[in-house]
Amino acid sequence: MRSNIVLWWIITVFFVIAAAVYTAWSLLDPFHGYIEWVGTVALLFVAFMGAMIAIYLRKTYRAQGGELPEDVLTSDIDDGDPEVGEFAPWSWWPLVLGASATVFLTGLAVGHFLLPIGVALFVVAIVGWVYEYYRGNFAR
């Protein structure tokens, strides 16, 4: 993570220098001779966003207490393997949920008569996904 922090600070410095060069170049232009504010402000905002990401990564790095196991070259895969929850390995409900979103968005683009069909499919998919462990092979 330390290398990411350094990389974002390098990006920030680069865009600050680019903004200064852009401003000087626009002042030296014989046809205009004034600061072109849109490009200057845009480059400074990009530098500001790079600095925000670098500061966030630095605070995160300090809060986690050093290097993560994923960043240490000598660590094993299991060192940084947290418990993330229980997921159904053969669930078809996410596919039905995606199909309902497709029908709903197609209804927005093509014809409004598909909107209630998409909403109905969405409700069925959500209920099926939530209650899939209550019946069938995976019932508890």
Structural description of this entry:
The protein is mainly α and 140 residues long. The chain folds into 2 domains: 2-72; 93-138. The chain is 62% helix and 0% strand. It has helices at residues 2-28, 37-63, 93-109, 115-130. Helix 1 runs antiparallel to helix 2 (37-63) and helix 3 (93-109) packs antiparallel against helix 4. The radius of gyration is 26 Å and the shape is flat. The model has no long low-confidence stretch (mean pLDDT 88).
Shape: flat
Fraction in beta strands: under 5%
Unreliable spans are none
Structural class: mainly alpha
* Main sheet: strands, sense, barrel: none
Number of strands: 0
Count of discrete alpha- or pi-helical segments spanning 4 or more residues: 4
Order of helices and strands: HHHH
Please bin the fraction of helical residues: 55-70%
What is the total number of structural domains? 2
Could you tell me the radius of gyration in angstroms? 26 Å
Please outline what is shown here.
By secondary structure, the protein is an all-alpha fold. 62% of the residues lie in helices and 0% in strands. The protein folds into two domains: 2-72; 93-138.
